[in-house]
Amino acid sequence: MNISTAACPPAWVSTSECLRALAFVGDLAAARLSIPRHPSWLVAALNHSPPACGERPNGMLSLEEMADLIDLQQPWLCGHSRRVAMAAQRAASQMGLDEQVRQRCYRAGLVHGIGRGAIPSEIWSVAGPLSSAVREQLRLAPYWTWRALREVEGLAQDAEIASYAGERLDGSGNFRGAIGAVTPLEGQVLAAASAWIALQAARPWRPAYSSELSGALLAQEAAAGRFHPVVVEVLRGAQDGAAPSASAAASISLSERESEVLRAISQGQTNKQVARQLAISPRTVGTHVESAFRKLGCTTRAAAALKARTLRLI
User: Fold this and answer.
1) Same domain, 223 and 261
2) Statement to judge: residues 120 and 79 lie in one domain
3) Contact between residue 197 and residue 84 where contact means Cβ atoms under 8 Å apart
4) Strand pairing partners for 60?
C-alpha cells in the first residue's frame, strides 16, 4: 500500500460527518444485540457540544476532539487515543522520520479506535476465554475503523493507516493478516504504539502493567517477528547511551553498502530479504551488519538502525 507524501490536510473534520461515522459503528453494535439504536456512549457523543474556540471553523471538530468522542465507547478508554497518537508521533520522530510521516502517525493514532464501537461494549469487558465467533467480531474492529472513517471527508489516508493498528508483521494480526512490508511503516509504528499504551493501562480483565514489564512484553513480540524492532526500541527508550551529537555523526563513516543494509534492516527486513533486495549473499549482508555494529558501537540490529537514523547516516 502506498501512502501519499502530500502535505497533511488540516486537523479539522466536519462535526456532522464525525457523528455520522460514530453512529455507523454504534448502530452496528446495537444491531448485533437487537436493541434500540444508539448505545449509551453514542448518545453521549451525539449530545456533545464542543467548547467555544475562536479558531474553530464553523461546524467543525478537531481530530483531538474526535478522539475524545471515540474514547467514550468504554470508561476505561478515557484519553487512550490521544496517548497512542502521541506515542506514535514520538516514535516516528526518534526514528528520524520526516514531519509528514510523523503527522500521519499522529492523526491515525487519534482515530484508530473508532471501529471498536461496532463491537458490543459487553464483549470488550469479558475476562474469560472468548468463543471463536466473538474473536471474529474483535478481529474485524480495524476493518470497521477503515469503513467508518471513510465517511468523513479528508480522512481517507488516516483511515488506511489506522486500519493497520491491529496488524502484526508475522501475519498473525487483524484484520488483513498482513505480512512484513505489506503494512506501511506508519501502520507498523501505530501498531506497536497502540499495544505499548494498552499494556500500561488497566483493563477489566487485567491490571495495568508497569512500563518495564510492558517494554519486556513488547520486546518479546518484536523478537518473535510481530513488531518492528526499531519502533519497539524507541518506544521503550532503550538506546545505546545518550543521544548522539553532530560531532558523533561526523566521526562515523558508513560505506554505501553498509548504509543500504542498515536502511533495509530499519524497515524490519531479515538478512535473507536484504540479500535478495541488494542481489548479494546473506553472508555478505551479515558482514556489512557486523561492520556497521563496530562503527556505531551497537550490539543489536534495532539499536544500530536507530542510531544510524538519528545521526542521519541512513
Assistant:
1) no
2) yes
3) yes
4) 14
From 205, 236, 267, the end of a domain falls on 236
Cell of 33: 444485540
Q: Match 459487553 to its residue by C-alpha cell.
A: 122
3-class SS of residue 66: helix
Say what the pTM is. 0.73
- 57 and 94 in a single domain? The answer is yes
Residue 84 sits at φ, ψ, to 5 deg, of -65, -45
Q: CA 42, 25, 218, 289 torsion: positive or negative?
A: negative
Q: Which of 24, 30, 43, 35 is CA-nearest to residue 120?
A: 30
Q: Could you read off the pLDDT tens digit of each residue along the chain, which spans 314 residues?
A: 444 444 444 478 988 899 899 888 988 887 776 666 666 777 777 776 666 555 677 888 889 989 988 988 888 888 899 999 999 999 999 888 889 999 999 999 999 999 999 988 888 878 777 788 888 889 999 999 999 998 899 999 999 999 999 999 999 999 999 999 899 999 999 999 999 999 999 888 888 999 889 999 999 999 999 999 989 989 998 443 334 445 445 567 889 999 999 888 877 778 898 999 999 999 999 999 889 888 887 776 766 776 777 677 87
d(CA 106, CA 81): 10
Q: Cell 467508518, residue?
A: 148
